[in-house]
Amino acid sequence: MKIKISIKVILFCILTALISVVVSNMSFGDVFYDVTNVQSGDTLTLRELPDFKSKKLSQIPHNQRFIIATGNQKKIKRNTWIELKYNEVVGWVNGRYLKKTQGASFTENLKCLGTEPYWSVDIKDGILVFRDLGNKASEYLVQEIDGSDNHNNKWYLSAISSKNSSIKIFLSLTNKCSDDMSDDKYKYQITLHEDQDKLTLNGCCNRL
Questions:
Q1: How many folded domains does the chain comprise?
Q2: 30-70 per-position pLDDT tens digit
Q3: 77 and 119 belong to one structural domain
Q4: What dihedral do alpha carbons 39, 60, 46, 81 form, nearest 10°?
């Protein structure tokens, strides 16, 4: 029995280390944009190239939010073009019709995890990265943070991805959360609900 537990703990440590390496190489600085300066009922054109005469790839609604940017921009004369990914299509939009989405910030950057099977969440500077049971990473923008009205150690967070899937998180400050695989005690207890795959997960968090 002791040998089995030891192997279990070793595997857990290896998994944690691997996840930490992958997450540390991910960009928490990915930017989301909202459409602006487009009349109600009209649409914003996503183009193949940063040119008003370029091929039209898609039409973005006037009130679309949380469009993820690829990080590429081009300055052409007086126009700044921004490359976006919308509904799995990558194209260019003139920057005058975009504004950066404002995400909510949590007072502490957190690393959360659950075991058997392993999953993880990192929350840093308003960006939430969720690594699911299959080890697939998805990035979300934290939209809302609310503290409990009758407890000063409980919080509610909601976050949304560029595909409009959402995550809801309930955090409790306990200073005694256990991962059930080690003797470590974590600062926060977390309950996470992910709507796309209908997952409800429990785990623990510490500050990053």
A1: 2
A2: 577 889 999 999 999 999 999 999 999 999 999 987 788 88
A3: no
A4: 60
What are 175-202's pLDDT values in tens digits?
A: 999 988 888 899 999 999 999 889 999 9
The Cα 201–Cα 169 span in angstroms is 10
CATH of the domain at 201: 2.40.128
Instruction: Tell whether 121 is covered by a domain.
Output: yes
Q: Which of 100, 124, 142 is the last residue of a domain?
A: 100
Same domain? 79 vs 140 = no
Here the contacts of 148-157 (C-beta below 8 Å, separation 24 or greater) are: 155/106, 157/104, 157/106, 157/123, 157/128
Rounded distance between C-alpha atoms, residue 129 and residue 142, angstroms: 10
Is 34 within 8 Å of 64 (Cβ atoms)? yes
What is the domain range of residue 77? 32-100
Location of structure tokens 């300055």: 75
> Per residue in 5-30, pLDDT tens?
455 555 445 544 443 433 333 333 45
Higher-pLDDT residue of 7 and 80 is 80
Out of 100, 119, 147, a domain closes at 100
DSSP 37: S
d(CA 45, CA 116): 45
